[in-house]
Amino acid sequence: MDITLATGPWQDVDTDWLIVGYAPADSPETFPAPLAALDEALDGTIARLISSGDITGKLAELHLLADVPGIAAGRLLLVGVGSIDRLTSAKLEKALVTATRRASKAASVRAAIALPSQEDGILDDNSAAGLAAMALQTGCVGQSLYRTEPGRHAFSEATVVSDAQQSAAVDRGSILGQAINLTREMVNRTAMEVYPETFADRAVTVANECGLECEVLDENRLRDERMGSLLAVAQGSTRPPRVVVLRHNGAGQDAPSLAIVGKGVTFDSGGLSLKSNEGMKTMKCDMAGAATMLGAMTAIARLDLPVNVIGLAGLVENMPDGNSFKLGDVLTARNGTTIEVLNTDAEGRLVLADVLAYAVDLGARRLIDLATLTGACVVALGEEVTGVFSNDDEWRDQVVEASARSGEPAWPMPMLDLFDDLIKSDVADIKNVGPRWGGAITAAKFLERFVDDTPWVHLDIAGPSFASSNKAHREGGGTGCMVRTLVAAAEAMENG
Ligand code: BES
Ligand code: MN
Ligand code: ZN
Fold it and tell me: Which atom number of ligand 1 is nearest to the Cα of residue 432?
């Protein structure tokens, strides 16, 4: 779906649903000029709704006017953005996605978003126009992939009404929205459809579409590359493992590379340490890290960022079987580290161990991995905040700042030496589980053993990557979280 940029008076926008943001302070005397003109065309309807208290401007409040003969649009959907001086990109996104979700229930709808100028607010017009484009892309796509009657429909036309200078911002927002939708779709598809080979096939297709180099490592190659830890996890499944390597070469040959590594467990049954029914229900989402990498790589390529980025996905299915890896097994990872397996459900770190070591061997100078790694991280930070773990304070701060700029909550966790003792093994170098407490940190400490001295950030997205229910402001299922943060972190690499 393409997004067009339109200019001109709001009352003249020819669309089925015109979405207009307004703030609580927008009383008729202080209406921004385009809103005042719109209200005049409507004979003062908006002013009357404000004085009657029917609309307040509260964040994400919707008010639909379905019969608006005075203006070119078929319907007017007013959406509150909350107080302008406390507006953040996360709040504006919430308001706009609530509105685009509302408008996308019917098929073949033309939708447009008009925003007041942010002159007095902390958001600049560029970010606002970008968010509007993104909201048009993401709000009309849902998780009802397998319904005979889909709950949501792509807009037949989508427009951002703004001034002409914002066309680059609109393009960027649209690209990010499409990248997020790709990540969401991959997560939302069932494990029956998405397994290592089909994920890799899709990566090849997507790479060809957007100009990324793509290489797929099959089982034999993974054996040649000594990825004993990843291969052990894959052993119990009829689906053979894959590692996908994508490359965007936007800078010179000698420029340093950022590597983005994603956990791609296409289904996590727990293996012989089998999960409960309740714990297993949503485990098609356990490849969200790999899907996030894929989404971000498409955006990095389409934006043609002047940086070198390598995207890697470690793809396996974790299943119980006569051939499964077992408790007490000792694995040798690519970098020679030996690992005692004490829980086959702590499989994500075993997959990432080899792929992180491979990224280091490819010459990556900065690393970010993303993984639905631990339930413990969800206990620590809740369902909406990403856990940040690192071996390098400067690189960690850069990634956290990228998340803040992107409106995606992320929080640093302590990586103290004392946690290293908790994964020591009597029979091997390390074991794959620590004690119950601090489980997100011991998992990160395990990963740290495979990155040498490369500045590395681990993002535990077990909470925010998958939402269990629909809300007015966001669809349930895959969320596409951290796609924007990855793109922003790659953009920050441009500057040093
Ligand atoms: N994929 C899970 C983590 C997870 C939990 C993701 C909930 C999304 C939502 C991971 O492989 C896992 O099973 N982790 C175990 C680790 C434990 C065995 C040390 C966990 O969190 O219980
Ligand atoms: Mn697991
Ligand atoms: Zn897992």
Answer: 19
